[in-house]
Amino acid sequence: MERPIQKPIGTPVEELDTPTMVVDLTALEKNIETVHGFFRNRKAKLRPYVGTHRCPALAHMQLAAGGTVGGVAVGTVGQAEAFADNGIADLMVTTEIVGPPKIERVCALARRAKVTVVVDSASNVDELAKAAKGHGVILRAAVDVHTRLNGAGVEPGRPAVNLAKRVAKAKGLEFVGFTSYEGPILEKTPAKLAAESRKWIQQVLDTREMAEKAGLDVQTVVVGGTHNYEVAGAMKGVTEVPAGAYALLEERYRPYRKQLKPAASVLCTVTSTPEPGTAIADAGMKSCGNDTGLPGARNVAGATVRSLSAEHTNISMAEAKTSLKVGDKVWLTPWEVGVTANLYDYINAIRKGKLEAIFEVTARGRYR
Known about the structure:
The chain is an alpha/beta fold. It has helices at residues 25-39, 56-64, 77-85, 100-109, 122-135, 158-169, 190-213, 229-232, 337-341, and strands spanning 20-24, 45-46, 72-74, 90-93, 114-119, 139-144, 173-179, 220-222, 240-241, 264-275, 278-281, 296-297, 304-308, 313-316, 329-333, 346-351, 354-360. Helix 3 (77-85) packs parallel to helix 4 (100-109), helix 4 (100-109) packs across helix 5 (122-135) and helix 6 packs across helix 7. The mean pLDDT is 96.
């Protein structure tokens, strides 16, 4: 863990040492209000996926805004433990939990929190049930349904219902319903977004209907995300939407979610202008995750990020409307917030250009 270089509250953001992750609280609060406001008076509720930012302080802000199920979703058992340690008592782990080390931990966690796991194989159902029974706890279990993309999950329809029956019979487990991650549907046209989203979500809803006809009690259907929360949340039978990126937003979603604004940035400093049309800044892939795409240079109109090296950003100024000189600040919007937040121990929270709070990224590095 890097030694934090923290400035006093009230410090102008330009005086923060760089590179650093910054969250604009005004934009964050507006994003939260936009999405949570949609869910407040609907049957379907939001289950914030907080594995995106890994920060309990932000998670509590999301839960306090209403329109949620009262709990969160995370990607790993380690993340679930970190959020439970920080006062969140309803957790859904969206990755299949396989093998004794993780299963033992999730059973221990179930002693102090309501835990929902996802399953897509009979063998995993059996090992989870055996461990839960041995620990004297009940694990809530949702059957993970494979729909779009090449992700995890059992096929919809009869295979998913048969697995649900196995869960329902297993001592130590409580069958709660179905979930699916259809993956980001990046479509600017609302009608096309709705049609594509419904095509995949309907497979899960049809599976629910089949399960109920077979006598199973289906409490939850967890589908959708930031890309289509308003579509998923309006579909009859959907109970929870595990959206995550909406709060901080990211470059990947920015062109498609016009109602939301980027709240997270990596603030960096121009360290060199070696030739006309090029600027070098001090944020590389070690401080601005580029696993799936390059960040945007948000405050420099027309500038584009060419590449990231370990410690530096190469910015093309060929089409830029302004110039950059050594010492200028550049605000990079991460392509994917999750892989960037995971690089930081702390987030600098600002309002109106000044530091208002410093939030710990407690669940960073919790891969297991």
